[in-house]
Design a protein that fits this description.
Number of domains: 2
Protein name: Apea-like HEPN domain-containing protein
Keywords: Membrane, Transmembrane, Transmembrane helix
Helix content: 55-70%
Number of strands: 10
Strand content: 5-15%
Length: 380
């Protein structure tokens, strides 16, 4: 990322009090034993950019992975006091080599302010840089499949639990009480079902975006950002070939499900068929403005009170299972379910193609997760 001369001049003025050490890693033996360690976790904003400011722009020396649990260290001298700022397993740390409490107090307050102002100067350039990378399609999508899947599973199971309560035969002799208990369980089952449908379509939309990286994505021909905000049905048709009978069948099922449940409740139960409106018919009274349909009983009050059967969830689960077994999606689902973020860069998309050609990504997922775990724990 390039910055303009004006911004660099501002950074130079802001950081003018920081001097590079005369010798790289030239601090005296026992430096850390005699230094005061201060946590910057609460005071430092966007600390991950600090190394970029000090090293990549300003040219300060940096030690990468000098010891276990430390990602990088940057040495500098500020107003004659030797200091180090570092990225460690449990956060960012500032080391001040001084026994003077006044100096320690002043620097522990002053340096985080300077660092934050330096990072803030980059904000405009970061926005421009990010927009450019997105336009090129050179981005990584954070994989949130597990969280969204768990959310869907939670509501689905809660709906099932309420259905089971509805169907339990009790010894309650009071018919009204027994009836009301069953109705309450059915109604709550219906509420959880609606939440589960919302969660599933959220999961589906996220999954379709992740799968784009495996479906001959061409950043010159299509925009990731525009794709993200397409309707789920448009994304579905881009990812899945509807000539395939299975995917066409699920598409029709999902369209119907979204119209009956997701769309209706997402828009305050207002629908295009006028079902939320009544008109007055002289001599009869209020009647529904909705066109009559003999088979349309899904929205009847009794249906909502009794709750559904759970059959829709079985079909949704079979759809997800199909993706894990289908020859075109087995590898991509291994990677997605393995929790890896999805990299849209040309290099990684070529790697994905190789894995899809091999038919198995289990070793790739295991190896990558091991590297991520080691990096997060800073085990070098």
């Amino acid at each position: 990322m390039l910055i303009d001369p004006k911004t660099k001049k501002s950074l130079l003025n802001l950081l003018s009090g920081l001097e590079k050490p005369i010798k790289s890693r030239g601090f005296p033996a026992g430096f850390y034993d005699s230094a005061v360690k201060i946590s910057l976790n609460q005071s430092l904003q966007r600390g991950f950019l600090l190394k970029y400011v000090l090293v990549d722009i300003m040219g300060f020396p940096c030690a990468y992975q000098p010891i276990e649990k430390v990602a990088w260290e940057i040495d500098f001298v500020f107003n004659g006091t030797h200091c180090t700022v570092s990225s460690e397993k449990f956060g960012y740390r500032l080391y001040i080599r001084s026994k003077d409490r006044k100096i320690i107090s002043r620097l522990s307050n002053q340096l985080p302010l300077i660092f934050n102002k330096a990072v803030l100067l980059l904000q405009k350039h970061l926005e421009t840089f990010s927009a450019s990378e997105i336009e090129k399609g050179d981005i990584i999508i954070v994989n949130q499949y597990k969280e969204l899947f768990d959310m869907y599973t939670f509501f689905k199971r809660q709906a099932q639990r309420k259905r089971n309560l509805r169907n339990i035969k009790t010894k309650e002799k009071d018919f009204a009480k027994s009836w009301n208990t069953g109705i309450k369980a059915g109604r709550e089952s219906f509420y959880f079902e609606q939440a589960a449908y919302f969660a599933f379509f959220g999961l589906l939309e996220h999954l379709l975006v992740l799968l784009l990286a495996f479906r001959n994505f061409n950043p010159k021909a299509e925009s990731i950002k525009k794709f993200i905000f397409l309707k789920w049905s448009e994304k579905y048709k881009r990812i899945f070939n509807l000539i395939d009978g299975q995917f066409n069948e699920y598409y029709m099922f999902l369209v119907k499900l979204s119209r009956q449940n997701r769309n209706l409740y997402a828009h305050g139960k207002f629908s295009k068929d006028n079902s939320s409106m009544l008109v007055y018919l002289a001599g009869t009274g209020l009647i529904s403005a909705k066109p009559f349909n003999f088979n349309d009983n899904a929205d009847a009050p009794l249906f909502r009170w009794l709750g559904g059967s759970g059959e829709s969830f079985q079909k949704l689960d079979k759809f997800l299972q199909l993706l894990t077994e289908h020859i075109d999606f087995k590898v991509s689902m291994q990677i997605i379910r393995g929790g890896l973020n999805i990299d849209f860069s040309p290099k990684e998309r070529r790697e994905y193609k190789k894995l899809m050609h091999s038919g198995d990504a289990s070793e790739f997922v295991e190896h990558t997760n091991d590297l991520i775990d080691r990096y997060q724990n800073m085990d070098w």
